Amino acid sequence: MADDTSAAAGTSTETGAGTGSNLRTTKPGTKRLFLTVSVLISFLLGAPFLLKSTEIHRSPLPSAAISSLSDHLHSNPPSFPCHFQAIFLSPFKPSDSSLSLSVAERIRAQLSAQSCGNCNFTVSVTVDSGSSCRDEGDAASAACLWECGGGGLVDAIEGRDDQGIDELLLSAVNERTGGCAGRVYSVFVMEGRDERVVIGKHRHAWMVLKDLDDSTSVVSMIGTVFGDYFMRGGVEKGEYIPVGSDGNVVLSFSLLNSNPSDWIYDWDFQRTGEVLLAPVLEALAPVANITMESQVLYHAPKSSISYWDEKLEAYVVNTRDLPFFVNSNEWHLDTSLSASGRSKVLQFVVYVPSASECPLYIRTPEGEMSKTNAFISPMWGGVAIWNPPGCSMQSQGIHIVRDVLPPQELEKIIEIFIGQLRLLFGLNSNYVEPSPIFKVLASEKGFTNWELDLLYRQHTCFNLLSSLSTLQSLSTLVESLPRMIVMDEIGKQVELSLEAANLAERNISLGINNASALSSIRARALAEDAFFHPSIMSISYSSMEHYFAIYMPFFAPVSLHVLLAAVKEVKRYFAERSKYLTFRASKLKSS
């Protein structure tokens, strides 16, 4: 302050002396300048700490790896290694020089187009008639060729039923087929009087034909078995498969008593139903994590109208009225506590009609009663109508019957539900054979091995593409919002999802279908968990405009005054210093 006071005094003295109006006789002080600039510098030094304290945490995402794998899967859809072998147990002289090429061409003709989940197949043909043995196939199928010496199978098959033949051929395939990557599907061809083509419940079929001289017809039938059944599951067009994005499916079984004033039925579902369904759930484990629950509901009438049919002597519901059968207002079915938000719940309902509409049947468009008296609702579930024994309109109001659904009746209903589950998973409930000589064996676990292979391939392909699409959407979203919070948990889930997808692709190349399906489920579930993480949905990922709008009211007023004061003080200092220098120059000039 002494410097500033003396400076002011020096200036006024000169002015008063009349030697100059804008001259300064003393050097201006720097204390005011130092204090003002110090305050400004302290604000500038504090800016990095402010930015660090308000920094948005963003866990790094492997965007390049996601884009690379996604482009690879879209340009080259997953293709599973499969080997098709035709084994002639009777003498056969084909008209074509290369029988394996003919069979391969026939299989390709059965396929509409190369799609995700199809087989990258090789073909081999072996004529093993006992007296001679000849192998034919491409180089890729050398490790999968049938070992000669199976001519005695024809005699062993004689006198066995289809189930026995199926198990016999299974042991023969395991014994005489070399190890190779992927699934091996076999068709045994033999000569006999009783013509038939049987598709087994494992991964083989057998054909008994009267005449093997017509090689074109034989090759056509072999191609039909390989292409239509083993490759496509006997389905013309695949349907959507009802699995939740987290890989979980809840099967909810409900017994509905339409009017408990007439009769009340209960069931022992845990003792009978769960035991019968356990093999089905075990077979579908690589496709989805399936859980079951059951309940009994009362006062649950249907929505559609039924009427008396004199010809059938029963109340009937036409198939065109089935979409209105489910009463969403009275059927309180959504009671699952085990299903998360992304799990799929399939409802399976046993409907017990009231005495005023009993017996109740579904009438087909042909005017006949449905054989199963049941129907499905795609993506929802299925309904089976069960009429109590001896029910009629005359029994209405006589007395209330309290009983338990008989175990044998429950077994029949469970079989119907398994057929409906097959339909919901995109397979046929009952196969319609292309020819009277065709027959498809059913499996006790509800799905044959070649059907499960098809489901594994379809689910693996769908889950892989879905998971990569979700990961790429998440990566694009994060890149488009620079201030979006990405927690470490999200980054870890993305890495694990990508790792599971790569593992599924490796398992595909090795032909391990069930393991690839399990890995693909994990990849999709982790990708969905990362995309719908609560931190993404609840925490504000604000833009820079929002950022400035929050902090400007706190720091702008003070910072603006400090900046203006510093600018003003710097201007004043240089103005006073200019006056002093001018005074010095004039003094030296006068001396």
Automatic annotation (TrEMBL):
Its main location: endoplasmic reticulum. It comes from the Eukaryota. It is found in: Endoplasmic reticulum membrane. It holds the Pfam family PIG-S. Residues 1-16 have a biased composition (Low complexity). The chain crosses the membrane at residues 33-51, 547-567. Pathway: Glycolipid biosynthesis; glycosylphosphatidylinositol-anchor biosynthesis. It is a multi-pass membrane protein. GO terms for biological process: attachment of GPI anchor to protein; GPI anchor biosynthetic process. One of its GO terms (cellular component) is GPI-anchor transamidase complex. InterPro entries: PtdIno-glycan_biosynth_class_S (IPR019540). Residues 1-25 are annotated as: Disordered. Keywords: Endoplasmic reticulum, Glycoprotein, GPI-anchor biosynthesis, Membrane, Transmembrane, Transmembrane helix. Belongs to the PIGS family. This is GPI transamidase component PIG-S.
